[in-house]
Each structure stands twice: as C-alpha cells, then as structure tokens.
Fold these 2 entries.
Entry 1:
Amino acid sequence: MGEVVNLRSYRKQKARAAKAEAASENRTRSGRTKTERERDDREIKSTVAFLDARQVDTGNDEEAS
C-alpha cells in the first residue's frame, strides 16, 4: 500500500509553492531600478531604429496585388 497523505497539508504546500513562484516572478519583473528600465528601453529603441534603417525593400508587393 502507498503512503497515507493528508490532503489538507498537501494543498497548503502546493499553495505556498505557487505563491513563492509568483513572488519570484514579481521580484524579477519589478526588481529593476528606473535607470535600468530606461536604459533597456533606449537600447531596444536604438536596435529597432538600426534594423528599420537597414531593411531591404525587395520591390515585391504581394499584398498590393
């Protein structure tokens, strides 16, 4: 026979684990300073601008036909 498991304590353990995981995600998402977020935003914008400026136009406009 298998081990007897108290379902109430199992549910509590599961809820604690889920809560800890959510807290970890929130810390990762919100744990940066304002200057770090602004730096990342500037980097993303400059990368997008760089790629847009160098986009090759093939002249094939399939959507227009």
Entry 2:
Amino acid sequence: MEEKKLNAPSATQVGQEKKSISFLFHLITITITLLTTFTSVRLTVEQPTPTEELLLIKSITPKMLSESDVIPATVRAGLSIFKYREFDMVNNNFIFEGTLWFEFDPSIISIETVSHFRFEKGDIVSISPVRSHLSGDRLQLFYDIIVKFKTELDYKLFPIDDHMLELVMVNTKVSPHNLIFEADGQSFIVAPDTESYGWIQATQEITTGYSQQAINTREPSLDIIRPAIQFSILYRRSGFKYALILLMPLMVFIIIMLTTFSYDPEKYFSSIMVANGASLSGLIAFRFVIENMSPKVGYFMISDYFFLIFLVLAAIIFLIGIFSLNISMRTKKMLILLVHGLLIMSFITIITYELSFSYHGTEFF
C-alpha cells in the first residue's frame, strides 16, 4: 500500500492565513458591540433625563411679604391645554389651544388688574372675550386662548434626550407686593390626546412665584418683579427608534471597513481601498442627514460627539488599509479588537454622561 504524504502548506497559503480573519471572529466582535450599543441606548431612553432648569421663576418668601406695606391679594389661577396646533421639539416651536382661568375676591382686586397678563417667550395668537362666573364672594374669569411660544430647551443630549416644556405667565399690572398667585396640582390639566408622535407626556406641574427682570446689575432694587406662574410639562421619547436611526448607519460604515481585513490584500488591495473609501465617503455624506434631523444649535450634542468618534475611527482604518500589505493577521485582530473596544468605551462614557442628568423618576418638583 502506497503511503500518503502530508504536504506542507505553501508560502502563498501561509501568507493568506496570516492576512485573513475568519467570519466567526467578526461575528463575535460585531455582536458584542451591537448588543452594548442597543442596551446602552435602551437604558438611557427608559430614564427621564431633561437638562433644562426646572424653575424659571423665584418663590415668594415670607420676608418679601413682610416688607410689603399692604397685604397682597390672592388670586387662584390655572390652565387647561386641549390641543397642540404645532408641536415641534426640534425647532422649539409650540402652539396650543386652551383655557386660562382666575378666581379671586372682586372686592379686593379688580378684574382689570387680573386681566393684565402675558406669556414670557410667547405670544397670544387669539383670546376670547372673558367669561365670568360669580360663586359667593369669589369671581371666576375664563379666557379661551391660543398661544404660540418657545421654551428653554437644551439639546446637548440629542438624540436620546427628554425635555421639560416650561411656560411662564406673568401679570404686568402689579408687583407681588399687591398680588400673588395660588395654585395646586388640579389647576393645570393637559389633555391626554395632546401627545405628539414620538413623545409621551410623563408629568406636569404648576408653580407660583414671581418673575424678575434685571434693569441695572449694580442696583438690584431697580429690578422689575411681577407675579408669575410657571406651567411645566415633562415629555419623554416614546422609544429608541430615533436614536438608532441616527447611530446605526455610522456603526454599519465602521463594520464594513473592519470586515475588509478579511480579504487578502495581495489579491484584493484595490477592492479593499474601494470599500474603505466608499464607507468613509458615505459616513461623511451621512453627516448632512444628521444635520437635517438635528436641532440647529451652536454647541455640541451627543450626536456630534458620536459622529466625530466614528469619523476618526474610519479615517484611521482607511489609513491602515493603505498599509495592509505589511500587516499580519495577529496585528489585524488586535486592531479590530481595539476599534470595537473604543466604540464600546465611547458609548459607555457618553451614556454615563447622559444618565448623570437623570432624576431617577418622574417626581421633578
């Protein structure tokens, strides 16, 4: 019987083994990175994380009341929002229909004084003639209003951000020494069907106090103070679809560039460079898509940080691809692990920063 001899692998085969990476290796690393990304985004979306200041007005203190020569009249007030005509969280434009009401003792304060109100950073588009109702010694006034307003939105956590819509109403006729507002949790109602696509109303709150406008920083006594009510509504993203739409394409471009390490650069160098160049160009072009979907602000958002991280990694992989003929399989594997590790660390770092704004619940006030 003739013996079969085991032939040693040729030099070409050895070169191919040293310069190619198995599909299983890519599958494991990609799976770990995607699971980390998906889990991180999901955890952050589940936490309420508004970055806006909770209170835009100041509380009236007993000391302030004691400094007044007269006892200020107390006016109960409230707002019911029935419908949003415009709800644009990206461009910070809101228009709602609702009813604003006041309840007070007409023997202490006049209707004319109570009726002098306006909304800060807002315009009353339409207001109905006042409807009044007398109940005992208390007079109730009702105004059907349509208000267009902007609010103090902070987009630094975009696209995994929640927002606190804040609307401040002030009386422009008198100071807190003459009139103070009073309200409770039942004084502010937002209809459940006002929720906009992509956003869920978590909670709302009404806060009374006063608004202060500085006239001269050297003379605080000249500041204009007005009785004010702040209406606050917390809106949360209804899911992580929006975040994944922005982040996943960036991840895909990087994954495509990493998989080019599986090709033998001696045979497919031109194909590797074409794939890397196309992915890098696609990543840069996708920036315009992100820009169109993002709020127009002058500071960096999380989406900007993510894009810069992916862009730097893509540029590094592209440069490595140019010298891939001289890189061994061991070095390629280390580079792939390094890139995936940097992606995971970047996600964890940014997500940790995002969660630092979480109030761990819906009790914000």
